[in-house]
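INPUT
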Amino acid sequence: MLEMRGITKRFPGVVANDDVSFDLRAGEVHTLLGENGAGKSTLMKILFGLYQPDAGEILLQGRPVTITSPTDAIEHRIGMVHQHFMLVPTLTVAENVALGLPSMRRPFTDLDTVSQRMVEISDQYGLTVDPSIEVWKLSVGERQRVEIIKALYREAELLVLDEPTAVLTPQEVDDLFVILRQMTEAGRGLVFISHKLREVLDLSDRITVLRNGVVTGTTVPAEASLERLAEMMVGREVSLAPDKPPVATGRPRLVLEHVTVIGDRDTVAVDGVDLEVRAGEIVGIAGVSGNGQRELAETIAGLRPAEPGSSVQIDRADVTTADAATTRAAGLAYVPEERMKDGAIGEFDVGENLLLVNHRDPSFLRGGLFDFERIRLHCQRLVDAFSVKTPTLQTPTSSLSGGNIQKLILARELDSDPTVLLAAQPTRGVDIGAAEYIHGQLIERRSEGVAVLLISEDLDEILALADRIAVMYEGRIVQLVDRADATREGLGLAMAGAADRSPG
Amino acid sequence: MIRRALGAVVPVGAALVAFLFGAIMIVALGANPIDGLVAMLDGAFGTRERLATTAVRATPLLLVGVGICVAFRAKVINIGGEGQIVIGALASTAVALAVPGTPKVLLLPMVIVAGMVGGGFWGAIPGALKAYASVNEILSTIMLNLVAVQVMNYLLRGPMIDPLEVEGSRIPQTERLTDNAALPTLLSGTRLHLGVVIGITAAVAAYVLLWRTPLGFRLRAVGHNPNAARASGISVERSIVTAMAISGSLSGLAGVVLVFGSESLRMVTDGSAAGFTSAAGFNGIVAALFGALHPLWTIPSAFLFGGLLTGANNLQRVLQIPSPLAVALNGIVVVFVVSSGRVRTWIEQRIRQPVDDRGASAPVAGGGG
Ligand SMILES: Nc1ncnc2c1ncn2[C@@H]1O[C@H](COP(=O)(O)OP(=O)(O)O)[C@@H](O)[C@H]1O
Ligand SMILES: [Mg+2]
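OUTPUT
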């Protein structure tokens, strides 16, 4: 039904799509697989009329078309569920669906008919959402359904889903896949974008891999393996399961006792968490984001106050009420969840960001002023040791890739020889190569006797690295198991809140 | 590269446009704009004495402007220069009055410290209010300007009034300070005094502080990204208070220069702040903006505005044009320089690509660095 031929799209400094060809048949799921920045979204935004290609053509049902706006695309029965949802939170579901459509009773709205048709569509695919509820009250998974309903309401025959699973629990992913299969059975064509190998193999009929804007191959799941796909994505062999040498665990280095934290919306974000991380172990906190992980991390790092009765200890020192500087002095290293918000200063150059934590160190000063030669040597050593790819130390940090910024932060944090490492979503949005490297570093520190607390939404990452796994749901630790006893299904259920509450 | 070039071109363009407006106003007042320009340049830079006067008038602007630069690097906007000048001047004058006989080598450091402490304290108040109570510093500094004027009027009418005036006409002024309190003249026959050196030294010191010391590093880190600064163990609150204290102390130093570099060697009030400061607390902001909020660029920028002020006096003499024209010109430059940030962002976006769904980069404030 769709053919894109020789699509090329340049942005200043990058060729986002370089002579890319892609096709889609009715009734199939054709996956676009690739690392962040590979050009997947760009290709689909061209199809949806958001960008104009510099070269190449688009054919629908064999006829060449030009699509200059989303309105054009919708007329051609193309729908798109964006990576970042485009809903108005204060409006109801029905109002969001009706938004931008001509009303049949102008100048008045026809929300009742919209609701009615919506319910029909919902029933057909099991996409249950109440049309009269305001969007801000919905969970992420439900919002995604609204986006899908919106597209179906506009009678999309060809639906693009840009990284739809990034925000879902494993359970929600399974539900989504059921819905998507029903849609292909009804003869629709789906373009599924992802960089998660396992689910790609699960869902796809065909898989096209993009790397740096170039197609590196098209394959079918039967002929592909995780390793093979990863290699096509990255361009070299990668180890998906890092080697983890056995380490004897020592005494508890990070001890949380009944930690309760109030979140930004004045509600209880962390609700009586008890947890110990011992020297030489990685404890993973799994869970869908928004269940208190961020608040817990900020409290441990001394950035958010805990409620009375809570206790946080690092190497036996009580840091419950300590600020970030004191907590760090007690031995904590902290890799925050949002690297450009909390981890690094975009306007600072690479060297300055490497200096952020220890700029007071007297060895960097001479006569009270910075000794730039010493600092340069120090920063260069870190950049080399952690293979941060940067043109110079004076390069503005914001111009580095996510993976390199993350390695920079890790380099800075690990340089202080911490006894406790708190890493929140350390590989979110970074390329496979950098993720591999970061995982290696976490394991190495574990071997050196550091207590590592790894907070991650990525269940594969938790399963690959953690020695013990805690699942957070609605501010509580609802499950705590040894890695050996953990199953993907069990953790997935706990993440969705289905586990019986047996903390500790 | 483009960004660098724009950083220089746009403010200069803004100044040119402002002068064009000035020319139009001169025409509207019935004079020849070329004559006007000549009169201004001649008045500002024509002779050795005039150059010296320009430098002297530029010094308070420079000191205030450098303070603005320091505060701005920590993302604090200090509109309180006027009040900080007044408090700095009062503190230093009080010290000089208290110990009249002290030799110059001792007295000058003492009054400088007193002025800086006074202004610094007056700056630290809004800093602390912002850091610990989230009070908008623009509002609080403006309010404190008003408070400072009242403090000045009270002190000069009562406790600090010249004993001769108590019995006499009760002019609100202090007694004339002893001559050993005067800032030494550097070039005989001109008004050029040590204050000019103090101003330039302060600008260089601020540059060194911001880019060569851990404290400056922290201020800049907090200014760019307070979240990341805090997460790395920097106290955002303390940094904000420090930035405002430094900024205020530089304005306080401007107050010292105004009193101890004046020919009358005393503090006088006409009831308003500007009567004492000649609005240096505001003109210094303009100088800093025109200097791209960089302490070193603020040196030539302040000199230029000092020239504008002295030049306008001459313009008035030669062409019989009201000297408030200089004030109007000042205002026009502010409007254009401030909006040039927008213009620059706009041009940058044009140069880049039309479509950018992730939103263009944040507006470039100030530049420099
Ligand atoms: N609007 C844009 N302006 C400039 N560069 C862009 C824009 N959109 C994407 N890019 C660049 O194009 C490349 C591909 O991006 P994208 O298609 O979003 O990748 P993906 O969706 O595969 O992660 C990246 O290098 C990205 O930085
Ligand atoms: Mg994308």
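end of record. The mean pLDDT of chain A is 91.
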